C-alpha cells in the first residue's frame, strides 16, 4: 500500500472510531504525523486527497477540520466525477435513474407536505407555454430535485441529484431531436404531480418509471 494511502486510511479510522468527530479540528500537523508514524509530506498528501472529497476542510491560517460528513456534501464528489462521463455511458446513468427516481417519487407521495406539493405545482406553472430547450431543462431539473427532496431521505436525494448532471445533455438532445418532447415532458410531469397530490404512491411510481424510461429508450435509439 502506498504511504499516502496508508495515511488516508489512518485518518479515516480516526473518524470512523469517533476519535475525530464531524466539525472537530485535527491536531497540529507535526503532532499528528508523529502520532501516526508518518512523514509530514505523506500527511499533507492525505489531507489534500480527503479535502478533495469533502471529508476534510482545510482553512488557511486556522487549521484542518472534519466536515459535517453530510451525504449531500460527500456525494458532491461523485457528481464531479460522473460529469466526466462519455456519451456512450449516459445510458447507464439513465438506468440508475430508472431504479432510484420511481421509488423516490413513491416516497414523496406519502411524505411531501401540502405546501411542498403546492411548490411543485408552481414549478410546473412557471414553465412558459412555448419554452426554450434551456428553460425546459432548468424546469425539469428543479421539478425532479423537489421530488427527490420530498422523499424525506437525504441520501437518496443526494444520489439522484448527483446523477442529474450527466443526464442534462441527453435532455437537451431529446428536446432538440424528438418531436413533441416538450409536450410529452409537460404531460408526464403533470401526471406525476397529480399522483403525488392524490397520495397515490403506486401511481406516482408508475408515472415516474414511464417518464424516465421514455428518455432512456430515446437515448438508446439515438446511440444505436
From TrEMBL:
Gene3D superfamilies: GntR ligand-binding domain-like, Winged helix-like DNA-binding domain superfamily/Winged helix DNA-binding domain. It comes from the Bacteria. CDD domains: WHTH_GntR. InterPro entries: GntR_C, TF_FadR/GntR_C, Tscrpt_reg_HTH_GntR, WH-like_DNA-bd_sf, WH_DNA-bd_sf. GO terms for molecular function: DNA binding; DNA-binding transcription factor activity. Keywords: DNA-binding, Transcription, Transcription regulation. Residues 1-69 form the HTH gntR-type domain. Coiled coil: none annotated. This is GntR family transcriptional regulator. It comes from Streptosporangium carneum. The gene is pdhR_2.
